[in-house]
Amino acid sequence: SDGSIRLHQMTSECPLMQWNDSTKGQPIIALQWALTRPAVFFALDASSNIYIWDLLENDLLPVAKQTIPSERVVTMTLLGEPEKANGLLGIVLAKESGQIDIQYVKKKWALP
């Protein structure tokens, strides 16, 4: 609810990494690991900002931020085929109006 993200190992209650205020205080409403690249995850905040984290490139800050300006995004999920090496990864965004939007991710964040 405060924009913090914690990375846990299943065998410990203490986080391996913790990023406080990663969304400048906005609540995170969805977070998902990339299906095709294990070190990348995406976070959606309550202000319709999508943050892309690539832990191999930078483990302190997101490597990119994209604002969806048209209307509020209420949730997101990722689509892709992890068993294929084509690097195709998409973000499905559900907007407040009920509209669904699919955007494809740059290859540098999608390739295995």
UniProtKB/TrEMBL annotation:
The UniProt entry, under SUPFAM superfamilies, shows: WD40 repeat-like (SSF50978)
Source organism's superkingdom? Eukaryota
Q: Which GO terms describe its molecular function?
A: dynein heavy chain binding; dynein light chain binding
Q: Single Gene Ontology BP term?
A: intraciliary transport
List the InterPro entries hit by this protein, alphabetically: DYNC2I1, WD40_repeat_dom_sf
Q: Which GO terms describe its cellular component?
A: cilium; cytoplasmic dynein complex
What protein name applies here? WDR60 protein
